[in-house]
Structures are given as C-alpha cells and as structure tokens.
Specification:
The complex is a heterodimer. Chain A is α/β, with parallel strands linked by helices. Helix content of chain A is about 45%, strand content about 10%. Chain A has two domains: about 325 residues, Thiamin diphosphate (ThDP)-binding fold, Pyr/PP domains (Rossmann fold); about 35 residues. Chain A is built from 14 helices and seven strands. A five-stranded parallel sheet of chain A has the order 1-2-3-7-6, sandwiched between helices. In chain A, strands 4-5 form a two-stranded antiparallel ribbon. In chain B, helix 10 links the parallel strand 13 and strand 14. Chain B is built from twelve helices and 14 strands. Chain B is α/β, with parallel strands linked by helices. The chains are: A alpha/beta, B alpha/beta. Chain A: Its cofactor is thiamine diphosphate.
C-alpha cells in the first residue's frame, strides 16, 4: 500500500466552472448550446416579482420566529432562483416532493403561503393534502421524500401517464447533505432501473447545517448521476433563467418517458440552516460577500434595467406588493388558532383504534374532572 | 367443506384473490417474481398478473418501503414482502417515521393502505438475522397496526383483510409454520370473517389462560394437550392482533381462570408479554390467583441455530409456567 492514493489530486467538488448559466451576476444574458428560455417581457417581470416576493415572505417568517411567533423557521434566503426557476418549470400536472425549505416552490405552485406556517408555529405538522396541492407535505427526515417521489413516479408510469406532452412528471427536492443518505441513493437506483419520470433536484447550498460540501463528496454532485445510469446537470442555482431551462427540459424529458435526471442547482444558503443555527461558527471569511455578488435577485433586476423592461415605478410597486403580502401573512400567522388538545388523538388511524379512542375518552374525562374546581 | 392447504399456500391464494378483487393491489419485494419468493409465497403470481403488478425490486429494503409509500399516494395498494425479519431494519426509518405518521401528519388527508409482510420467528435452523421477532418495535409505534397469523385459514383471510384495510399493516407470518396444513374454506366471503383485529379462543379451558400468537399458538395448543393428560385444562387464546390488542376475550378468560401465561418467541424485556401483563393486572386484579407469567425468548441476541431449541419457548417451558402459576 503506497501513499499515492492519499496524495491523489482531489477535484474540488465545488468547482463551479462547469455549470449551465444563462444570466450572469451582472445581468447579462449568455447563450448555452443546450439550454435557452423564450420568456416574454411580462414573464421576465413576473419572475422578478416571484423572487422578490418569496424573499420578502421568507424575511417575514424569520422575523416572526425572532418575535416568538414561530417555533423555528428554515429560511430560503439565497436560494430564491433555484426554487422559483424550478417551481415555475413545473407543469400543472406535475408533482413536487419538498424538503422543509421549499417555500419558494410552494409559492410558485400557486399555493397559499400560509400553508406550511402552521408546521413552523407548532399548531400542526403540515396537515395539507399533498395530492390535491400537487405538493408533498414537508419532510423533515433528510432524503426520505426522494423515495416517496420515486414511488409516485413509478405509479405514473404504471398508469400509462408518460410518453406525451400531457405526461406527468415528479420533482424531488433535497440538499447536498441528503446526497449522503442511503434513501437518496436508493431512490436513484429505483428511478433508474424502472426508468421513472422523475427529476432529482438537489439544491447544493454548500452546507448541511455546519458541514461543508467536502464532508459529503469528493466529486461534483451532478457527476454521481452517471454511476446510476442517468444524466446529471449542474446549473447556476442563482440564475433563475438557467434553473428554469434546465429543470423544464429535465421534466419534459421525464414526462416523455426518457427517465430521470439529476439537477444540481449550485447555490448558497445566505442565512442560517434554521433560526436555531449560528452560522458564524462555521462560515468561511469572505464567503458571504462572494455570494452576495452573485445574488439571484439583483441580476434579474439588472437585466430588466439593461433591457429597459421595467422602470423605477415597477420595482417600487413590486416591493410594495410584496410587503402587503408579507403583512397579510403575518396577520394570518398570528391568527392561527392553537389546536384543541383532543386533536392529538385524531387521525392516528383512518378509522380509529380502540386503544387510542379509549385514551381520548380518558383524556377528556380527566380534563372534565377539573371543571368547576378551584385552581 | 374446504380444502387442505399449507399456511404458505393459503397466503399465496389469499394474495391471488386480493389481486383479482382489486387491480390496484401490487406486490413488491426481493425475488418475489420468477422465484416466487424465498418461501414461494408469491409463487406463480408474476406469471399470472405480470411484472407490473408483481415487482421484483432492487435489493434495498428502505427503497422498497419508501417507494411503496409513493405508490400508495398515487392510489395503489402495495403489499411489500420483506424477505426475512432481520432485514426489515434498513426500512425501519421509513416504516416508523413515514408509513406510520403520514396519515397523522396530513390530518387525515392521505391514507397509506399498505401491507408489509414479514416472515418472522425462529425454529428453521437458520443463520443470524433470519429468526427474529420484531413485533414489539412496530406495536410500540402509533399509526401502525400489527397482526400475526397462526394457521392456514387465518392466513388466507387475514392477508385479504389486511390488504383491504385502509391502515398500514405489519403482517407477520410464522415462517416455521409455513408448511403446516389446515382446512381453509375458500368458498366463504371475506365480509363474513371475524374482524382482523380480534383475538380468538382457539381451545376452551378452565384452569389457566395461555396467550399466544403466530408460531407459538401451535406450541400453546400442544401444551394444552399435554396438560390435559395431567388433568389440567388450559384455555388458549390466539391474539392474532398485536396492535391493537383485542383484550375483551383475554379479560373474560383471565377472570374465569385467575391464571395467565403469555408465550412469545421475542425477548421478554419490554415485549408483548409485558404489556399484556400490565393490562391484565389493571383490569383483572381481584380475579387473579397468581401474577401473569411470561414464557419468552431470553434477553440475548437470537443464538446460533444449534442452540435455538434452548432459546425458543416450547411445550415443556409452557407447562413449567403453568406449574409455577399453580404454585403461587
């Protein structure tokens, strides 16, 4: 055993030179041989509005946590383009399986942004209908949802809903840390061998709480796909145009029966992992500034300005409208009622269980025994 | 008026009938297609229903259960085969964190009508990981229901009831009894069978109540036969459902006999016997002539197969417990 192996040059897994980019940080459009977008002016302005709004709503939720109104919040700050780009790339019939940070995707699906706030306030654990919303319940166990997404995609194929423009596709969200989980790797295998209509969308935000990418991989994450037998693409995750183009192409490929794709959206978590985290303990000096220069929103604003697609009044109005939505969200969060204690006994089983039902009755009787008593 | 079937064949026919009754029923597992499963429980089903409904999966238990969840969300009714009890643990997270909690998490908006079949228990001379009894882990988890069949007729009907149920169900199959034969009246209707989560007196008696499930029901019945020769009358109850427990027949029996012995292969510490003893004590305290006694596997890892007959409860250990109960 020589020491040669330990001296082998390790390519930096975070070398971003090889990603798909259609819009530079300076707001300049660049062309790519395989990917393009054909947004009209309204649509470009709409993407800008999405980005600004989801950031504003996110900031409001962070503030709500700081004021004690949410138990915790997982901020998407810095990942707006990855979420808006991929979220807008979904067609109506497509199904998304999120982690717990996909507030921007949820917004772009046209879902009421209040929907996940109950989970973070602690009044429920999600509680929405994933099928009716075409958006899975937030999944906290890292990577677990990628298998649910794959199974759902297997079901689409069984239903014969692939092979046409109307075909259905699934997108599974996860992060760079999740790529180390067995479940994610098993999801890759199942999706590959059954050729399932799914896009694995990895937001590589450089950190799994405190651990940097180098603790998860020695190779760029998108390259892992080749070992599983399907294509992997790295996209500039702070570029909403490129993220849209790459995700839309991968979804359409899936819906036409051509199997899975791994998309690595190369981005950066500007905030903490959650409001319980302290990133000052692990951030590398200068990193924030470096990524601030690649901000997903400012580059779209520069584009709109450069191409004279929006004036100052537009930007002012977008900010004002986002603020209105944020204030409204705040008011609705504050109005979320605490659940009745009896709620915990409900929905353990679809048709109840004699044991849980008995405990619910005992619980009610116990509380009733205090009624009228002096405290 | 029935046919004589092995327990394994009864399961096979039960699966076949469930697949005929509902096109959304699909089977998933390792080697369940051409091979028919290592115990041949799915024998011939892929040939007749196709590989879209009888699915050989990659060798990844968490992947099997996790994708089954997605298929259930899509409207299918997956029946998963875990090849052996000791191999369910890679899927434990998906079962406990996802299968069990998805309905609750969604406030009832989604259901996961899945069945996870697990051949369980020892007595077949196997290597490590092939003889375990994981029922307490799953019974401890809210959101799951857990059942075990003990004979061919129950196997035939209970698997169909489990598949028809809207609950996620851990379905435990006593692997050492796969080849035991019994009468099954397949002409009956599913709807007239007794409920899935009901316990059943399988041998009436007056002196001691013996509680068992899965592979230990046969052992308990053998003990009852032997005890009868000594003039002692054992009442044997097949619990059939570990979660929820159907305690009505158990309490009624305990109050009549005043003596209870619980038998299971799983280790005693915090096993089903612990819960049964606690509940019986709470409900039947003044009727008991002796403490509830447990005859179980020991609190060791399942031993090498040359020692398993020492580890597993058998007729003599049940009779010993009966004696101890009378000695109180």
């Amino acid at each position: 055993m020589t020491k040669a192996s330990s001296k082998r040059a390790t390519p930096p897994p975070g070398d971003a030179a090889d990603f798909v980019q259609l819009l530079t940080p300076d707001g300049e459009r660049v062309s790519h041989p395989d990917y393009s977008v054909d947004f009209n002016d309204d649509e470009l302005r709409g993407l800008y509005r999405d980005l600004v709004t989801v950031r504003k709503l996110d900031a409001e939720a962070t503030a709500l946590q700081r004021q004690g109104e949410l138990g915790i919040w997982a901020s998407l700050l810095g990942q707006e383009a990855a979420q808006v780009g991929s979220g807008r790339a979904l067609r109506e019939q497509d199904m998304a399986f999120p982690t717990y940070r996909e507030h921007g995707v949820l917004y772009c699906r046209g879902i009421d942004p209040i929907m996940p706030l109950g989970l973070f306030r602690g009044v429920d654990q999600g509680g929405w209908d994933p099928i009716a919303n075409k958006f899975g319940i937030y999944t906290i166990v890292i990577g677990a949802q990628t298998l649910h997404a794959t199974g759902y995609a297997m079901g689409i194929a069984k239903d014969g809903k692939v092979g046409t423009d109307e075909g259905e596709a699934v997108i599974a969200y996860f992060g760079d840390g999740a790529t180390s989980q067995g479940d994610v790797n098993e999801a890759f295998i199942f999706a590959s061998v059954y050729n399932s209509p799914i896009v694995f969308f990895c937001q590589n935000n450089q950190y799994a709480i405190s651990e940097p990418l180098t603790r998860q991989t020695r190779v760029p994450l998108y390259q892992r796909a080749s070992g599983f037998g399907f294509p992997g693409v790295r996209v500039d995750g702070n570029d909403v145009l490129a993220t849209y183009a790459v995700t839309r192409a991968a979804l359409d490929n899936a819906r036409h029966g051509n199997g899975p794709t791994l998309v690595e959206a190369y981005t950066y978590r500007m905030g903490a992992h959650t409001t319980s985290d302290d990133p000052t303990r692990y951030r590398v000096a200068g990193e924030i500034e470096e990524w601030q220069a690649k901000d997903p929103i400012s580059r779209v604003r520069k584009l709109l300005e450069r191409e004279n697609l929006a004036d100052a009044a537009f930007f002012t109005e977008v900010d004002a409208q986002a603020k209105v939505e944020a204030v409204e969200l705040r008011e609705r969060v504050l109005a979320l009622p605490d659940p009745d204690p009896s709620e915990m006994f409900k929905h353990v089983y679809p048709h109840g269980s004699p044991e849980v039902d008995e405990q619910a009755a005992t619980f009610a009787a116990y509380h009733a025994s205090f009624e009228g008593a002096q405290h | 008026m029935g046919e004589t079937l092995t327990l394994g064949k009864a399961l096979n026919l039960g699966l076949r009938r469930a697949m005929e009754d509902d096109s959304k029923v699909i089977l998933m597992g390792e080697d369940i297609g051409k091979l028919g499963g290592v115990f041949r429980i799915t024998d011939g089903l892929q040939k007749d229903f196709g590989d879209e409904r009888v699915i050989d999966t990659p060798l990844a238990e968490s992947g099997i259960v996790g994708t089954a969840i997605g298929l259930a969300l899509r409207g299918y009714r997956p029946v998963v085969e875990i090849q052996f009890d000791g191999f369910v643990y890679p899927a434990y997270d998906q079962i406990v964190c996802q299968v069990a909690k998805m309905h609750f998490r969604s406030r009832g908006k989604v259901r996961l009508p899945m069945v996870i079949r697990i051949p369980f228990g020892g007595g077949i001379g196997a290597v490590e990981h092939h003889s375990e009894s994981p029922e307490a882990y799953f019974s401890h988890t809210a959101g799951l229901k857990v059942v075990a069949c003990s004979n061919p007729s129950d196997a035939y009907w209970m698997i169909q009831q489990a598949i028809a149920s809207d609950d996620p169900i851990i379905f435990l199959e006593p692997k050492r009894r796969y080849w035991e034969k019994g009468e099954v009246d397949t002409a009956e209707e599913l709807s007239v069978q007794e409920p899935l989560h009901s316990s059943k007196v399988v041998r009436p008696g007056t002196d001691v109540t013996v509680l068992a499930y899965g592979p230990m029901v046969r052992t308990a019945l053998d003990a009852a036969n032997a005890a009868a020769e000594d003039g002692r009358s054992l009442e044997v109850i097949d619990l059939r459902s570990m979660s929820p427990l159907d305690m009505g027949p158990v309490y009624a029996s305990a109050k009549r006999t005043g003596r209870v012995v619980v038998v299971h292969e799983a280790a005693g510490n915090l096993g089903m016997g612990s819960e049964l003893a606690a509940r019986i004590t709470e409900e039947c305290f003044y009727s008991l002539e002796a403490p509830v006694l447990r005859v179980t596997g020991y609190d060791t890892p399942y031993p090498a197969s040359r020692l398993e007959e020492e580890y597993l409860p058998d007729l003599d250990r049940v009779l010993d417990a009966v004696d101890r109960s009378f000695g109180w």
